[in-house]
Structures are given as C-alpha cells and as structure tokens.
Specification:
Helix content: 25-40%
CATH class of the largest domain: Alpha Beta
Radius of gyration: 23 Å
Number of domains: 2
Strand order of the largest sheet: 3-4-5-1-7-12-11-10
Strand content: 15-25%
CATH topology of the largest domain: Creatine Kinase, Chain A, domain 2
Largest sheet: 8 strands, mixed
Distance between the termini: 21 Å
Number of strands: 17
Structural class: alpha+beta
Shape: globular
C-alpha cells in the first residue's frame, strides 16, 4: 500500500493547545492629485509578486501561514498552528514583516501604472469611514455536545477583557471625543453566530475545526482588537486560554451571565475610569474590574489543576492583575509599556499636552493612525519600542526566523516543508489547513487531521516525490 494512503493514529493532547491569530490589515494609498485608485487596485498591485509565484492572491507560505486578500481589499495574514504563545507571537509579528515587504513592489507597479504614492498598512481595526475589520483568535478545544452553552459561558470574560487587552482609541461623537479601551467594541452586534460579516458576533460558531471533527471544535473569537505590543498579545491569548482551561476542567464559574451583552461591551469600552457597571442576568450590577478579578482569583485558585504553574503562566497572571489594578486605581504607569491601550494613551496624552489641543484634533487622529503603521521606519509604535518604551516577549531573531520557518512542534512543520519543497521543485500543488496535494498526479493527496502531529511518513513520501521530480 502506498504510504500516502495510511493515516497515522490520532492522539488527543489535553495538555497542549493549538492557537492561531488572523489579522486583517488596513490598507491606504497616500497619493497626490491624479486618477482615482480603488482599494482593490492597490491590493492587486501589492499582491502582484504573491500571485506570480503562488498563481493566486490566496496562498500558504513556506512558514505554513496563510496570506490572502480578504473582503474589502484587506490584506489578511493567518498564523500557522502554534502550540506555544511565544511561537504564536513570533508568527504574528512575522506576518507584519511579510505584508510590509510587499509594499515596495506594490508602489513600483503603481508608478508604472501612472500613480505615484505611498502604501500604508495598518494593524488596527477601524478606518475613518467607520468601517471595521478584525483580528480573529483561534483556540482548539475538545468537541462537546454542549458547545454553544460552553461558548456562551465565555462571553462575560470577553466583554470585560478589553480593559486589559484593548488596543485603545479616540472615540469621536457629535458631543465631543473621549478615549476608549477598544475600537472593536462598537462594531459587535451579537454574542454568538455562525456568520462573521453580516452580524459580526463576538464568537463565530461555524463548525470548521480544521482538524478531526470527531474530536475537536475551534473556539473562533472575533471580538478582540489587533494588538501591537507583544505583552498584550501574550495576555489576550494567555488569559483566554486559562479561562478555557477552567471551563474544560468543569470548574464551576461564578454566575456572571450578562443581561445585555451589546450594551455591556459598549459601556465598558467607553469608560476609562472602570466604574461603569454591567447588568447581570440575575439583576446584580458589577464593574468590568469586578468581573475580571473574579476570573483572576478563580484561575489562581486552581493552578496546578488546570495548568502547570510555569514562569509564563506567572507572567500572564502578573500582567493580568496589574492591568486590572491600573484601571481600578487609575494609575496607568505600571502597564504603560506593556498594554496597548495604556501605551497609546500615554502617547496621545503627551502629544495633546504638547499641542494644547482637544482630543478630537485631526493631528491626534493622524498620530493614532501612525501608531498602527507596521512600517519599522514610519510606525510610531516601533519608534517607541526602539526607544525601550515597550517591553518585548520575543526577539527580532525569533520573528525573522518565523518569517520563513514554521513552528516545529505542530502540523505546521509538515505544511511548511511541503510548500517550500514544492516551490523549489517548480511543481504545481494544492494546500490548505488539512490537505497537501501535488497537482497532476494520482494518489498523492495527504489529509492531516491531527494539528498536534509534526511527523508523518505520508508527508515524507510526498517530499521524496518532489525531491525526485
């Protein structure tokens, strides 16, 4: 029997978690007078080199991540499967470098088409016209009959999580402007739904695990903000993982069901004092600080039972607590080098003081946008990081390695090796999250249903075919 026909035995890995992040980037062309240029045209020029080698604007890269143009001409990057948060952060940051590397070629093609301009890519969540685009989080969980109830139990945590993991933004209203925790909060319309663009829920319940569907579901969270600071990403993903582990261990959660989720997420977002209360289904009212503290205390009380108390877990809990305390005390200095909303708040406050202007001044809007520019030269975030004003989790060497190398402890290793070898051999191929196929040949499709497995004799067989192509 052909080795590509024999699937390996599947294993369940309760101690490990598969993580993924999907980031939609804001795209803007800064050009002088001339013919109008649509976002679709700019995106097309930006992705020209990708289409040349991938024969599509939707490709999997040698680092096993996915790069494509999403609805609305947004470049999108989805990380490969990661089973550590450091791998995830490195892969996420590698995505910024990968999309930024496309800019020079895109601008050159625009000039050839008679348009002289500068392409900007922003890792943010809203544009000046009020449109929103997302950052989606993926957590692999065991399949269970009560998945909708399980997911619903996560909503109070997600609604209030923004006080520590929000990106921060200046919210402009007819009556003035104020600083908010999250730009994404105002664009949520449901708690859970199988749709993502029509209703924009906090959790997408579409059953698409990209793994063995008999064993797994994917917790697909789309309420979170895109985050620039590595510690914020660590906290966003790490705290959510810890709460999921509580739920998976069937630890009784405090009764925190919200009476009106959409009202609650907006009220929390717009109150930087942390004193705004949310109404619970049982009639009580709690602040977001109160709710988050309940989760922190519960995780701390069950360490060892739900997860090994590693140095990384301690770091997550420490930052989580300091973030909640910063909101409670209104002293943001303990987290102003680690949490996005506090880093940006400090920047906006200092520039506003220097300019002597109101919060709705257009110059502050430009400042805020520049904060999210992924360009290492133009982006204000990276200037702050270079000045030592933002803490790091991974090194530049880690990120640069992740640009071309997939995580080595998951299925991503197999996909990355296949893509790299097929490209080197000049062979046409088809690949997605679970399939590898050499085009034009029979019996050479490999189905990879176990995202934890990083070795597979069937893939070795495919690589050998490509080696001798």
């Amino acid at each position: 029997m052909n080795p590509t026909d024999i699937p390996p035995p599947l294993e369940v890995e309760p101690a490990r978690r598969i993580f993924g992040l999907e980031t939609e980037f804001g795209l803007h062309l800064d050009a002088g007078p001339g013919r109008p240029v649509t976002p679709e045209e700019v995106a097309g020029h930006l992705f020209h080199s990708v289409v040349q080698w991938g024969r599509s604007s939707n490709v999997f890269l040698p680092n096993a991540s996915r790069l494509y143009i999403d609805v609305g001409a947004h470049p999108e990057y989805a990380t490969a499967e990661c089973d550590t948060l450091t791998d995830l952060i490195a892969s996420d940051k590698a995505g910024e470098r990968i999309v930024h590397a496309l800019i020079a070629g895109g601008e050159e093609r625009l000039r050839a088409a008679g348009v002289d301009g500068t392409i900007h890519l922003y890792k943010n969540n809203t544009d000046s016209a009020g449109n929103s685009y997302g950052c989606h989080e993926n957590y692999l969980v065991r399949r269970r009959a009560d998945f909708k109830a399980f997911a619903s139990a996560l909503l109070p945590f997600l609604v209030t999580r923004q006080i520590v993991t929000g990106a921060g933004c200046i919210t402009r209203t007819p009556s003035g402007a104020h600083y908010s925790f999250s730009p994404r909060a105002d664009h949520m319309w449901e708690g859970m739904s199988s749709a993502t663009t029509r209703s924009r829920p906090m959790i997408n319940t579409r059953d698409e695990p990209h793994a063995n569907a008999e064993l797994y579901r994917r917790m697909h969270v789309i309420v979170g903000d895109s985050t620039m600071a590595e510690p914020t990403t660590l906290l966003k993903m790490g705290a959510t993982d810890l709460v999921l582990r509580l739920m998976e261990a069937r630890v009784p959660l405090p009764e925190l069901t919200l009476a009106r989720e959409m009202q609650a997420i907006r009220d929390v977002a717009h109150d930087l004092t942390g004193r705004a209360t949310v109404e619970l289904a049982d009639g009580r009212r709690l602040t977001a600080v109160d709710v988050q503290q309940e989760y922190i205390d519960l995780v701390r009380g069950h360490l060892g039972g739900i997860v090994e108390p590693t140095e990384e877990v301690a770091r997550i809990l420490d930052l989580w607590q300091r973030g909640v305390d910063a909101v409670r005390t209104q002293d943001f200095t303990p987290v102003e080098t680690e949490l996005d909303w506090a880093i940006k708040h400090r920047l906006v406050t200092r520039y506003r003081s220097r300019l002597g202007c109101p919060l709705d001044d257009p110059r502050l809007a430009r400042l805020e946008l520049a904060f999210h520019d992924v360009s290492p030269q133009r982006g204000l975030f990276y200037r702050l990081q270079d000045q030592g004003l933002v803490r790091r989790i991974v090194s530049d060497a880690d990120i640069e390695r992740a640009v071309s190398t997939p995580p080595q402890s998951t299925r991503a290793r197999l996909r990355g090796a296949f893509v790299e070898r097929a490209l080197a051999a000049g062979r046409d191929f088809t690949v997605d999250w679970v399939h590898l196929k050499i085009s034009g040949s029979s019996g050479t499709t490999v189905l990879l249903k176990d995202p934890f497995r990083n070795e597979d004799a069937r893939v070795d067989g495919l690589l050998e075919m490509l080696e001798h192509a």
